[in-house]
Each structure stands twice: as structure tokens, then as C-alpha cells.
Hints:
Chain A has strands at residues 4-7, 10-13, 19-25, 31-37, 43-51, 54-57, 64-66, 76-78, 87-94, 107-108, 112-116. Chain A has 117 residues and is mainly beta. In chain A, the strands form two sheets. In chain A, strands 2, 4, 5, 6, 9, 10 and 11 form a seven-stranded mixed sheet that branches. A four-stranded antiparallel sheet of chain A has the order 1-3-8-7, with no helix packed on it. The mean pLDDT of chain A is 91. Chain B has 117 residues and is mainly β. Chain B contains no helices and eleven strands. In chain B, strands 2, 4, 5, 9, 10 and 11 form a six-stranded mixed sheet that branches. A five-stranded antiparallel sheet of chain B has the order 1-3-8-7-6, with no helix packed on it. In chain B, a hairpin with a 5-residue loop joins strand 6 (56-58) and strand 7 (64-68).
Amino acid sequence: NAGVTQTPKFRILKIGQSMTLQCTQDMNHNYMYWYRQDPGMGLKLIYYSVGAGITDKGEVPNGYNVSRSTTEDFPLRLELAAPSQTSVYFCASSYSPLLAGSTDTQYFGPGTRLTVL
Amino acid sequence: AQSVTQLGSHVSVSEGALVLLRCNYSSSVPPYLFWYVQYPNQGLQLLLKYTSAATLVKGINGFEAEFKKSETSFHLTKPSAHMSDAAEYFCAVSERAGGTSYGKLTFGQGTILTVHP
């Protein structure tokens, strides 16, 4: 099992550019999440998904979009990058109803460090 | 609504000393509680979790935490600090997956633990 993988690891964008952060999990988890981490602020939930075709906003969704066409993949899209989106982005997954004893434990990817200049 | 407060953004201890990282939570329903650790430039790794079984929870690397409902606390301790424990630690709260919260985590601001010789 690779767990949760994220690409790219690092990226520098210019203001107004767009990009997609990729996230894939191979644990057959139903739930997937995107967080951003800013110094001294902990992690804030951007979007989450409870299954293929179902997504919803988290605490800080403005400026982002997501889609979930498969169980495995949950990409995060930035359409018009702004300096305020400079952050470290983490994808996580959890909860397989088919797995006996499954609880809320979220498994995190290694993160994508994004800088918008 | 859920919230988490970690008391102290930085904690410094000597190698071999007791580690105590404080976490207080607020939740309208019985919570699940988690401690995650983040080493530099890495993702988050689960240390331990409380899911309404034993109130004293043992985790990896010699850490443990005690759920105290009357104090709404979930403090993390380790009897003897090791240099390798230097990292950032996050406390988090969630409601049960399968309910309307879909296992979403609310994180504290994080506590950076420094261990000096």
C-alpha cells in the first residue's frame, strides 16, 4: 500500500495562474479531505468528499474547486492563484465502511508546498 | 460546533524530562480525539486516538493521553523525552464518521516541541 500520495511536492505559481494538486489513495477509503496549513494556524479544511461524485465545502473553500470522479482520486483546483493561497496543502482519507473496525482515523499525504508570487 | 485549544505554541524540555502538551476541546456531542505528530517537511502521523473506550490511551513512541470529560481535556504526555521527539504536535477533534460530520477533523494550532541535550 502506498497510502495517500500527492503531487507535486513543490510548486511556484504566478498570480492569476491556475493549477491542480493531485491526490490519490489506495486504501479504498470513502472519505477524502483537503487541508491547508499555515504557520501557527493548524490545519484548515478546504473541501471534503464522502464518495465518488459527492463533495462539500469545508471551512476555507474560497478560491478552490474539487471533483471526485473515482474513489481513489480527489484533485484540488486553484483557478486564479493569489498570494493568500501560499501554503502547504495536505490531502487525507478515512473511513472504509467495508473494513471491520474502521474508525475516523485520517491518513495524510506528504503535502504540496505552494508559493504564489 | 467543535473547537480545540492547544495551550502553548512552543514547549521546550531537556532530554529525559517529562513531556506535557496540553489540549482542551469543545464539542456538542461525545467526541473522538486525536494527537498527530508532524516532523519537519513531512505529513501528519497519528500518535494516538480516543474513541470512547479506555480513557487512558497509549500511542506510539511511548506517548499517552488521558481523556478527562469533566475538564474537557486530552493532554499528551511522555515520561522521558528523547531528541527524536522534536516535532510539531497537533490535537484534533471529530464527531463520529457515518454521522453528518463525516469524520471532519478540527485541529488545534499546534505545539512545537523542542528537546535539548
